[in-house]
Specification:
There is one protein chain. The protein contains 17 helices and 18 strands. The protein has two domains: about 230 residues, Rossmann fold (3-Layer(aba) Sandwich), CATH 3.40.50.720; about 210 residues, FAD/NAD(P)-binding domain, CATH 3.50.50. The protein is globular. The protein is of the alpha/beta class. It binds flavin-adenine dinucleotide. The site of flavin-adenine dinucleotide (FAD) has 37 residues, from helix 1, helix 2 and helix 7. Its EC number is 1.18.1.2. GO terms for molecular function: ferredoxin-NADP+ reductase activity.
């Protein structure tokens, strides 16, 4: 007798969840089973941080969404959006309806930065600003952009995204998919100086070369690096020579340091060897950022020099990394902010694998790496799952295939679907065309209810 179809729930329709769904369907034949995947997403639209993290002026990266259509078009994969696991449906319930559950819930919040003044008005988490400008329906619709001088803490790609969006003009960004409320708010931006601060040197900066180079493409932004901020010790030289990408980062920073300043209305200065120690405040508002000068210690690390500088800025953006949130009912490591796992197999507090529960993507290994990295991650997790299925280690679902949709129906949840995404997509493209802005392919819809009104279609029972 042929084996019954394996029913898997993948939680989170970001790249990790989508790649995992794809691999499950593609590789199921290797264990002689068919697989059906329900890809369950909290938001009304799929694609996770590709839609709500990648900067709007990076259309090439956003274009990965198009290649993911091929996966979501597969009949074995069913997108069920507008369902938050842990709130609308418990993990226990999922386990009763599926052979296995993969968590691919990513990261959406800012990591804490523990310096005085961090709670002042004008001190912002980069993740919140990203959520605003990328039109995530869970984030604010307006933003205080009254600061003329702004500090961004963190020398990684997210810091650069934030600095670039704050430095460009609203009109430069309006050709992208940004929604109207974001355009209108960006028009109020007073920033003429944006200062990006990193505690270490060029050989330790976490930018990718392309992002760093591309900063200079805007005619309205003059990118500056102080020649004093270019320094290497033996370990830095070694780090640079062993990584082509790091070497390109160093070359680009050196290029910015030695060239003539560009005549542009906005300055974006990258400061290296400056460690932020305090956000300065007056009457609860940000009035500056204090940094301590650092120097290399010979091992590629830095030490403080005891020399402090106060930078007069009216806003500080903290781009020091993302942080994942726990899903109720799933083990969570509150120090590393990941689901504890062994190669993707979820572990209980005693370190024992929890049967039928898996993790992949940023929730599995922390919020580092590019979209492409989530693919190899998904391979590891899905190989494990399929091996467990082949070994008979997964408990069969307690309920028939249709029961999960009946449960959602009974709870009155307006589920959004893949067919619904096509309608939302078409509506956003029509808004882009109607905007009259040349080259604007899409204008994002931000309001949750409006998204649902386009994308809600009662899913077909299987
Ligand atoms: C600001 C920023 C810019 C970036 N720019 C780039 C770039 O230019 N190029 C690049 O390659 N990479 C970029 N990245 C990295 C890339 O976005 C990540 O590598 C990738 O998105 C991680 O994928 P993921 O699927 O693990 O998580 P996510 O993309 O975060 O997806 C997780 C999904 O799970 C959903 N979810 C969460 N909790 C629940 C729940 N309880 N129930 C149901 N669903 C849930 C979320 O809504 C989300 O859709 C950027 C990241 C950030 C933060």
């Amino acid at each position: 007798m042929s084996q019954p179809t394996l029913r898997i729930a993948v939680i989170g329709a970001g790249p990790a969840g989508i790649y995992a769904s794809d691999l499950l369907v593609k590789n199921a034949a290797s264990i002689g089973r068919e697989v059906h995947v329900d890809l369950i997403e909290k938001l009304p639209a799929p694609f996770g941080l590709i839609r709500y993290g990648v900067a709007p002026d990076h259309p090439r990266i956003k274009g990965i969404i198009t290649s993911l259509h091929r996966v979501l078009d597969r009949p074995e994969i069913r997108l069920l959006g507008n369902i938050e696991i842990g709130r609308d449906v418990t993990v226990e319930e999922l386990r009763e309806h599926y052979d296995a559950v993969i968590f691919a819930t990513g990261a959406i919040a800012d990591r804490d930065l523990d310096i005085p003044g961090v709670d002042a008005q004008g001190s912002f988490g980069a993740a919140d600003f990203v959520g605003f400008y990328d039109g995530n329906p869970e984030f604010p619709r307006t933003w205080d952009l009254s600061a003329q001088s702004v500090a961004v803490i963190g020398v990684g790609n997210v810091g650069l995204d934030v600095a670039r969006v704050l430095s460009k003009t609203a009109d430069e960004l309006n050709v992208t998919e940004i929604p109207d409320n974001v355009y209108e708010t960006l028009r109020t931006n007073q920033a003429t100086e944006v200062h990006v601060f990193g505690r270490r040197g060029p050989a330790q900066a976490k930018f990718t070369p392309q992002e760093l180079k591309e900063l200079d493409h805007s005619p309205t932004v003059n990118v500056v690096v102080d020649p004093e901020d270019i320094d290497y010790d033996d370990a830095s030289i070694e780090a640079r020579s062993s990584s082509k990408s790091q070497d390109l980062v160093c070359q680009t920073l050196e290029g910015y340091a030695i060239r003539e300043p560009k005549d542009a209305p906005h300055t974006l200065q990258i400061h290296l060897f400056e460690s932020p120690t305090e956000i300065l405040t007056r009457d609860g508002r940000v009035v500056g950022l204090r940094t301590e000068r650092t120097e290399l210690d010979g091992t590629g690390h830095v030490r403080g020099t005891g020399t402090f500088t106060d930078w007069p800025v009216q806003a500080v953006y903290r781009a020091v990394g993302y942080r994942s949130e726990p899903v109720p009912g799933v083990p969570f490591n509150h120090v590393e902010h990941v689901i504890p796992n062994d190669g993707g197999h979820v572990l209980d507090p005693a370190g024992t694998p929890v049967p039928g529960l898996y993790a992949t993507g940023w929730i599995k290994r922390g919020p580092v790496g590019l979209i492409g990295n989530t693919k190899s991650d998904a391979k590891e997790t899905t190989d494990l799952l399929l091996a467990d299925a082949a070994a008979g280690l997964l408990d069969a679902p307690l309920h028939p295939a249709d029961a999960f949709l009946q449960l959602l129906d009974a709870r009155g949840i307006p589920v959004t679907t893949w067919e619904g995404w096509y309608r939302l997509d078409a509506a956003e493209r029509a808004l882009g065309e109607a905007s009259g802005v040349e080259g604007k392919e899409r204008r994002k819809i931000v309001e949750w209810e409006e998204m649902v009104s386009h994308a809600h279609i009662t899913p077909a029972y299987v």
